[in-house]
Every structure is written in structure tokens, then in C-alpha cells.
Design goal:
The structure is a homotetramer of 367-residue chains. Chain A has 367 residues and is of the alpha/beta class. Chain A is built from 13 helices and 10 strands. Chain A has an 8-stranded parallel β-barrel, surrounded by 6 helices. The radius of gyration of chain A is 26 Å and the shape is elongated. Chains A and C meet through helix 1, helix 2 and helix 3 of A and helix 1, helix 2 and helix 3 of C.
Chain lengths: 367, 367, 367, 367
């Protein structure tokens, strides 16, 4: 009986080679057609033609595969041809490491983010609330070696009656405090209409989690030259996040920094759940720098240090953290911002700003 | 021993009444302060004052509660006072049934949606692709009694290289087809900058799931007078969805229709998971009409009929459905749109457009 | 140029047919090998052989497909052959409608569940707490026409210090109350070791959500002849749920009733989220009856009526509901059980027990 | 007007102190009652008594709080008393750091897990398939310094027709291989009935994710003296996981090791999503050692190194990893096991087994 199987397997081997020969020939012809279609500016995928081919195959089918199986199988063959083209297209995704193998370094003025540069720390209050608050915070974090300052002037809030930020006045206060202390200013943009005032006021435009798939905003910011910090959506897959970055690069802005900020899960001990795999996969699949917002990821002060350690170990290019002179009276995020004393303790525990992340590049680029 | 317990319980009863007396007195004083603060335009919640009160209580505490428990307990008492005000505030949420007990009926021209009116059917292609496609679809659905036509001219797509809709040309084609067949036109708006052209072209502005928390867009559309169909976000809680509607009402637009379209779950047999509880709770908590998009909820043609039956049974005020002359060649959503024959079979199985939903109002308004 | 494309397409058409011919031949040979392997009691899938075939193909490949594409493509061809066998295997899944097209009716004594029989109502307390409580509840629900009584004697509790049920004494109390009022008794089994006492005491064995993938328990219950009510796990996919039922049928027990009880989601307004698509898909993919536990699905009394309507509309074969003489003092589920008055109001609103579900069978079996 | 507010605030301050006085008095009386009830073996919570108290309070209520608010508020006061007792109870949770501040070190023979001991590595195949496979793997990992060997003899499989493990024969093969190479043997137990044979064969009993809430299994294993490795359920909250461990400790087994293995999320690039916050919170809230299964967490070989780094950085006490002589032909988990060469590369990249985790204890015990 084993002899029988051996003989039949030899027949399979021969048929495999015959299949390969036809598949290769078919792929060559398909490529030729593709070139002609491209020259005519026509799309490669033609569902009517595909349907006609499938109909012809079904008409010719006499088993043992059912018609459904024949259709599914040849559809897979067609898709393989299309995948071949897609593979080639994928190399064209501007975010892809296949397109651009080396780490992108985004320079915010003279501060580099990404590549082999030391991990950066972006610190500041959730929202800019007053001149005193923003000035005190900027002074403190700058005195501790921080170079990048965060502070929201326009706040996306679930409830329309919550504090929504000081708006343009907030941008002015943030800019002044940053200028006074040699800091770069990062603030969230919610509407393309505000882009001109942001371009005059900030050093990095932040796109928030709720706007990750606000495609019109992405397109507008993609036409700016300012660095962009793109937060991952609350329930976005990694692919959706990377495609949002692709919108920015596609419009011409190469200075994109990804920022993981925790995903929505069933957990009630934390506000969100930090997804370190997303950091790893963003580094593997793209060449862009990746930060981690440890404040929103956990929503708990007692997790800031361990989550920072995990984020840096997995290869994050920097950390984002909320600092407020008096979190108990903050107009938002009271429970998760650290005060100045807490901030100093955090720096001691995490070794910022002396943190070096040797081997970060090695982890993801030497594949 | 039971006598002892009885005696101690009498002591508890007396203390309960003493607590009630002080709590009532305290609430009265707090109300008075609240009125004075409102008169001064000051916020009621003052975390510094609260901290001072808690500090004083801790200083006075001699057990048996720990300081932490005293703080937590009195914090709960403070919150009860705040809750009292919040309760009163809640009546002020414009979306709330406490504010507006009767069902809101949104009129799209002469077509009523909500209240005791028969459930409506919104049908049409995912995207407007050509004059022929939109014209044929409009003619067919109108011939079957449909009054509301959907068709996207601007399509939010995860991948920047996917078909993004015909834009303004799509709106023109849709408007023309609707005018030719006496249909009302529903189309998705992605950017406040396009609002003027939408106000000239459509009868209902749709806000898509990915823009549910695009607060700037909500504000702009809230200042329009056109009816708005607000889809629920992919992972939004019901409260977040209702708060998004609150943005619209708060800006002055009362013509808001909610639309459940399935939530993201772990399920792989369906694209999304229809959440009928969300329909029920939206009807219980708000006075707004609620539709269900059965095409996106399941992402499968074989679920359209059962999901429609479930949606109508739970009290939905209408259904949204994608219809395309030839789904196999559609530029999006190939797998889930129905063709004309499928559409006719759907109508037969669901009894549209003769569907009446008696008892719908009864289910949610007689509480 | 169009002529060129036409000519090339003719070449593609010819190659398609050549591919079909080889694929069919290959499938025939593979089938023959499969038969010989089955005769030898050997598994069909042989990864070493597959690897050798792929290696040979890669060695023979000269483009235009990359080696990776050739492997992926032929792997798809191999899988198509395997799928052909799997398709045939699938017909062998005992739960599958392909295997068994007609609805299975599970008889609990003289009470039929499934098929065209009217929807059933399973009512009773979360847990059996005392003789008085179980007797009063059984008397009340029986007086209203209910035939199936639920009541837990062994309660799975997250916290080891919570009330865990009365155990065997609970089974005795439940059995006595059911006998006194002509009811069938449904109770949850947590351990195969208790199976003998359950077989003496209950009419339907319930397997709870947390034990849905307790495969040893499934196997033991599969060897019993008692009807089984199998709850869906809190985050189980539909496929995982159906595979758990397959364990029961595979061991020889055909009397399986599926029970949807809501899935874990991000929603905070409800305890779980009723998944009506799961009911529809369980009816489409299997021939088993499907119930819906409306108490756990929503966890709110005000959702019992709308969720019941949705469940019956989507084709559920029955409803499960918790009733307690005085929910406020219940030892579990205080917030979601209804009292007798609430139960009567529920029956009036849902038209139980006169509910007929005409067209239920039609919805799912006439495909 | 500010004077008025100041005066009213003084009145509030006085009322606060009066409330504190009554609350303290009430708590003392309640404690006394509690002691008497404990002496009688009665439960502290008496819902009928609570209802009577609330009724009396509502009868006495004359505003400004509504009856509902009075009930809710005093219910909170009652709960605060109960919480006081619960707080005291919580100290009694055997898993809690409040109960047991120092890290528990679980000794598997002479191998310590937890505390300040170096992180351990548990390596071996997903399933034990043959004498040759288990022997080769044990030899290889032992030669590289590994002390703990994993290998499944009973495999929980979604599909009843999948390979379910070699059962007792698998345990024998695993034991022999471990004995030959000086390894400790870790294997999954699925049914309490198999406990005797496990106690003769293995060094650590693993409880799998699907059985995390199989409470009867937990109770049985809790009565064993063998160390237990408790995996977190696929969608379990951290609290549910810790409560499962509590079952084990409550039954008398102190040798419990927690194991995070990734949670179910919407992500399609990974099989599960590693939750590093869960590791951090398990270390904060309990005194038990915590491992991370990096194979199941990501389900991808290219994530093993970065996830290991993150896990160790966040304070994990060890790592679990699947190794197989030839993953391509494995009977399960083909895509995620590493071969010997991959294992050696993994060790080089992660610095196992020389890994020290200084500061681990510091991270979580010095609070």
C-alpha cells in the first residue's frame, strides 16, 4: 500500500511542477496586461473581467472540486497575481520599513527623536489653565533637563459642558512659557481651520486618539511641515494606526512620531491598557519613532515607573507624561498627573534624562 | 444576646435619624452657597475648599474609622450634595428624557422619523460611483416605496490609497437621482469646510462612526438646521454616543437621529456586532429617534433579515441598508451590499414598507 | 493597445483552463492518497511531505513570482485540497446544519424546545436559598403557565468568600418544589464528580459560561443522556461556543440547547451586551435550539422586555429569566431579578406564555 | 456676598463635625453588633434589617434630598460601615500584600521563583508528542542552563477533533526526560480526577487560561502541596485572576505562581496582547511571583525578544517560552514555537540565564 502512495505522490510532484509552470506563465502575461493598463491609467482590478473568467472556469469544471471550490481556488490564484502587485505596492507604503529600512529621526528644532538617540521625555500639564500654572511647570521640568513640553489648549471632551481648554490664549501662554525656558512646545490640534495659528505657536502638532481617523485633519496636517505626534485610537488596530500615519506621509510630511497611549479593555483597575506589542510592531513594520504616553496608558500614578521601564525596554523612543503643580485642583485628569515632587521621584526611579536605550535600533532594524 | 442586639439596633436607629437631620441641614446650606456661586458665575466644585474640609475632619477623627475611611465617607457625603446638583443638571441635558419626555419626531421634508410613525427604511449604495449606478438604484428603491436614499460622496477609508468617493460630483449625482425619484438624500459629511455644499445638496447630514467624537465637526453641524444622522463609534459606550448628540443639540440643532451600526468585538463570523441594548438604552435615556444600520452591523447578507427583525422588535425607528445594482463590482463593501433582487426579497421577508411598530412608543415613554 | 490586451487575455483564458485541468487531476490523486491513508488510520496532513513538495517547487522556480510567493501560492493549492476534505469533514461536524438540516427539538419530558414549537420560558431564582423561597417561586411561575424552572444549587463565584449555593440540599429543595408544581428542573453542574446526584435530581443540566471550555466537564456531560443547556462564555466567539457543543454531541448526547447570555464589552450601562447575531448565527450554522438569558444579558430590569422582544424576533427558541420573591434580599444578583409582580408585568408585556414564533424555522432552515 | 459664603461655610464646617461624631458613634455600635453576630455565627449583612432602616429614614425625610437620594446616601453610610469590615476582611485576603507584605518565594525543589532571585526561564514544547521530541528538547534547554521544563500531556483544544495530548503516557515521557536532565517538570492539569497521577509525575501543576475560573479544579489543586502556575483567563480582569489565586491559598496551598499570557483584543497582527500593567498590578496587589508566557502573549516569533525585555523590565519573576525541535511539524502552535537555533539566539538577545532583575523587589514592595 505504501508503494501505491509513493507512486501517487510522484504523480502529485509532476502535477505540482506543471502547475508552477502555468502559474508562472500566467503571472507573466498578467504583468504585461498590468503594464498596458497602467499606461492607459486604468485600474488593474476589473471585477467584471474576473467574473467572466470564473464563469468560464465553472463551465469547464467536471470535478472533483465543486464549482464553489474551483471559483474559490482560482480566485486565490488571481489574488496571488494581485498580491504580487500588492507586494510591490506595499514596498511603496511610505511608512513601511520595506520602503525605508533605516530608522527615521524626527528633529524638533535641535532635539532628535528616534534612531539611536537617547529616549526623550515630553512633560507638562494635561491642559494649560493659567499663566502661573504653565510657567511654574515649564520652569520645573526645564530645570530637570526636559526639552519637550506638552500642554493642551484645545481639549477634546466627551461632555460638551466640560472644560474645553483656553484655546488661542492657551497657545500663547504655552509658547511664552516654552520660550522663557528653552522648551519645544507640543499641543493638540483638533480642527484644520486652526492650523495657521498652530504653525505660528507650536513645535509639534499632536493629533489625539479620537481624531486618529479624522482623515481630513490628517490630510491638512500632512501638508504642514511641522513634526506631528500621532496618537493611537482607543480601539484602533495597529494597521489602522499605521495607515493613519500613511495619510500624513502621503501628503508630504515625513516628520511623524507615533504615540501609543493604551487601548480600551475590560480592565477596571486601569483607565486603559498599555500595549507594548504595538510599540514593538510599530517599530518592526515602520521606520518612524514611537513614544509611549504612560499617563493615559495606565491612568494611575503608581504605574508610571513600571510602565516607563517596560516601554523603554521594548524600544520606545520616548515617554510622554503629565505634570501639574497641584493635580488635586487640575481642571482635568486630577487622578493621574504628578506634582513636582512626584515628577522628581519619577526621574530618579527611571533614570531620565540620562536614559540611554542602547540596542534599541538593533532590536528592530537588523532583521 | 438577641436583647443586646435589639438595644444596639435602637441606638443605630436613633443615630440614623440624627445623621439624616445633619445631612439635610448641610444640603440646605450647600444649596444656598451654590446659589450664591451661580450668581457670581463661579463653579460649584472647589477642590481646594474640599481638601480643607477633609483635612479638618481628619484632624478631628478619633476612630473607629481610619482617616482614609473618614475621608472616603465624607467625600461621599460631599458627592451626594454634588449629585443632588448633578441630578438637577442632568435634567438640563438636552438629549435626556428627563428634560423632554415625549419622543422627538425628526421630519425630513414630509417624512417623519420617530414617535409612533412607522419605521423608515434608508436604502442606497455604500458609495456613489457613477450616474448610471445611482440612478438605477434610486429608481429601484423608490419603486418599492422607499422615501430615504443613502449614498456616500466622501468616504472615510482606512487606507489612503482606497477609493475615497467622487466628492462634490457625487453629491450632484445623488441629488439629481433623488430629485428624479422623489427621494430624500442622506450623505456623510467628513469636514466642516464642506458644510455649505452639503446644505445645498442633501436632506440629512450623516456623521460617520469614525467622526463620532470629532467635536469640531459636531459643533459645526450643530449650528446647521439640517437633520443629522449620528452613527455610534466603533467602540463607543452608549454614554459617549449620547454626549456626542448633546454637542449637536447644545449648538442649536434639535433634529438629531441616532444610528447604531454594530460595535467592534472579538467575533470573526461578523464584521461588527449589533448591540440591541444600545438601541433600547438610547430610547430609554434620550427622546431622539434611533435607526439601525443592519448592513454594517453584521457585514453579512444572510443576517440582514434577522437583524432587521431584532432591531424593529427592540424599538428602532428605522433601518439603514446598502443596495447596489451589482455588488460584486462595487468599489467598496462588495460582500455586504444586496442587489435589487436581494432587496426585493428583503422587503418581502421584513414586511417593509408596511412595517408598523405598534407599542414602540409604549416600550420606552410610559415609564 | 486594447487589441494587445484582448490577445493577452485570451492567453490568460487558455492558461486558466490548463490550471483547472492540473488542479482537478491533482485533487483526484490527492483523494486517492487520502483514501489509502484513511485505510491505514493515518492523518492526512503530513507537514514533512508538504515541506518537501514546497522545497522542490522553490528549486524549480525561475520567476516572476518570488520563492515566497510560489510557496504561498502552492500552499494555497495544497490547502484547497485539504479544504475539500475539510468541507467533507465539516459535513461531519455533528452540530452542523450541513450534517443535519432540520431543527433539532430537545424534549424535556413532555416539553419541546426548538423547531416550530412555541418559545419556552425558563424562570426561577438565581440561587436556591431556602425551602420557602424556592417553593413560593415555583408556585408562582407554575401558576402563570411556566413549565421549566431554573435555580442554582452550586454557584460559581469570582470571590471564594461569596455565597456558593446550598449544594446537594439545594438540589433536593429544587426537585421537591418542581415536583409539587409540575415543573422541569434546570440547574448548573460545575464538576463531573457531581453528575450522579444531578442525574437523580434535575431534568436539564446547565453548563455555565465560565465552564464553557471546561472540556473534561463537557466530555462527562456528553456521556449523560440528560438534556444540556450550554451557556456561551463571556468572551467566546461563536465558533468556540459551537465547538463546545460539538464536544457534547461527539460524546453521544444529542440533547443540547445553546444559551446566549450576553458578552463582555466596554459598556458600563449594562452588565453584559446581548449578542443577537450570535443567536442568528447559531441558528444558521447549527440545528440546535437556542435560548437567550435576558437577565444576565442586560443585568437591568428595565431591559428585560425589549431584550426579550429582540431575542424572539431574531428566532430564539426560548427565554431564561431570574425571578425571586424579594430580590432586595437575595444572596446574589439583587439588582437584576424580578419579583412576582414584576414577573407578571413582564408576561403581559411580552405575551408569554402564548408567544408563538411563526416563521422562526423559516428564517434559518429554508436556505 | 463673599462674607455670606464665608458664614455659610462655617456652618458647613460645624455640620461636618457633627456628622463625623454621629458616624463614629454609629460605627462603634455597628462593630459591637458585628461582634455579637460573629459570636452567633450569623452573617453581618442583613438585607431585611437594612430595608427597614431605609424605610424609617424615608418616612422621616422632609427634604431637600429626595427620598431616593436619602436612601442612596444612607445606603452609602451603611456600606461605609460594611466597607470598614471589608477593609479589615481585605487584610484577610490571603493573596493581598496588605496581608503579607514581603514577596513570596515559591521553591520548585531547589529552584526559587520570586523575591530577589534572578528571573527564571520555563522552556519546552507546547505538547509532548514523542519520546524523541521531549528528550531532544529537554537535553537542549538543560544544556543551556534552563532548570524548569514545560510540556503539555493534556491539551485543552477548542475543536474536539484536534490533538488532545498523549495523556498519562505524555506525563511519563516528560518525567523521564526531566529526570535525565535534572529539570523540574511543569504540566497542565485539566481535571481534578487526574490530580493523583500529576502529584506523582510533575513538579508544578499548571492551570490553563480556560480553567482559570473552574472553581472546583482550583479547590482541588488548593488542597495539593505542589506549586501551582495559574494562567490568567483570556478576558479576565486582574481582580478575577487574583480571586482565582485566592481560591488556591484559601484551600491551603501557598505555592502559587501567577502567569500573564496575553489578553484577547481586537488586534489581528498578534494572537493575544501582552498586558504589562497586569504584571505590575499583580505585583502591587499581591505578594505572589508573576511569570509571563511570551509565546502565547504575542503568538509571533519576532516578538519574543522585545516582549521578554518588557516583561522583565516591568518586574516579572520569570518567562515561559515554547521550544520544539521542528516547529513546522509540531502538532500544535506551529507558528510560534522556536527551534533550538532560535532558542539559542533568544538566549543571546535576552541575556538569559544570567538575567538579573535588580530593583524588581524595590519596584513593588517599598510602598
Amino acid at each position: 500500500m505504501d508503494d501505491q502512495i509513493t507512486a501517487l505522490r510522484a504523480r502529485i510532484d509532476a502535477l505540482n511542477l506543471e502547475l508552477l509552470e502555468r502559474l508562472s506563465a500566467r503571472a507573466q502575461v498578467a504583468e504585461e496586461i498590468g503594464r498596458l493598463q497602467t499606461a492607459q491609467g486604468r485600474s488593474h482590478y476589473d471585477p467584471v473581467r474576473e467574473q467572466a473568467m470564473l464563469d468560464a472556469l465553472v463551465a469547464a469544471n467536471h470535478g472533483p472540486f465543486s464549482d464553489a471550490t474551483v471559483k474559490s481556488l482560482l480566485k486565490q490564484v488571481f489574488q496571488a497575481s494581485m498580491q504580487l502587485e500588492e507586494e510591490q505596492d506595499k514596498v511603496q507604503y511610505l511608512t513601511s520599513r520595506r520602503h525605508h529600512r533605516a530608522d527615521t529621526v524626527v528633529w524638533v528644532g535641535d532635539v532628535p527623536i528616534g534612531g539611536d538617540h537617547p529616549a526623550v521625555l515630553v512633560a507638562g500639564p494635561c491642559a494649560i489653565e493659567s499663566r502661573e500654572q504653565v510657567e511654574a511647570t515649564a520652569a520645573h521640568v526645564a530645570s530637570r533637563g526636559v526639552r519637550l513640553f506638552r500642554g493642551g489648549a484645545y481639549k477634546p471632551r466627551t461632555d460638551p459642558y466640560s472644560f474645553q481648554g483656553l484655546g488661542e490664549e492657551g497657545l500663547r501662554l504655552g509658547r511664552a512659557a516654552c520660550d522663557a525656558h528653552g522648551l519645544k512646545f507640543v499641543a493638540e490640534l483638533m480642527d484644520a481651520a486652526d492650523l495657521p495659528v498652530f504653525e505660528r505657536s507650536v513645535d509639534v502638532i499632536q493629533i489625539g486618539a479620537r481624531n486618529m481617523q479624522n482623515f481630513r485633519l490628517l490630510k491638512a496636517v500632512g501638508r504642514s511641515k511641522l513634526p506631528v505626534l500621532l496618537k493611537r485610537g482607543l480601539s484602533a488596530t495597529i494597521e489602522e494606526w499605521v495607515m493613519a500615519a500613511e495619510y500624513l506621509l502621503h501628503e508630504g510630511n515625513p516628520n511623524v512620531i507615533l504615540c501609543e497611549r493604551g487601548i480600551r479593555t475590560f480592565e477596571r483597575f486601569t483607565r486603559n491598557t498599555l500595549d507594548v506589542s504595538a510599540v514593538a510592531l510599530a517599530k518592526l513594520e515602520t521606520h518612524l519613532p514611537v513614544l509611549v504616553d504612560v499617563t493615559h496608558s495606565g491612568g494611575r500614578r503608581d504605574l508610571l515607573v513600571p510602565l516607563t521601564k517596560a516601554a523603554l525596554a521594548v524600544g520606545a523612543d520616548g515617554i510622554m507624561l503629565e505634570v501639574h503643580p497641584n493635580p488635586a485642583v487640575a481642571l482635568s485628569d486630577q487622578k493621574q498627573q504628578v506634582d513636582f515632587e512626584g515628577f522628581d521621584a519619577y526621574l530618579d526611579a527611571t533614570l531620565f534624562p540620562e536614559t540611554l536605550s542602547p540596542g534599541r535600533t538593533e532590536l528592530y532594524t537588523e532583521r
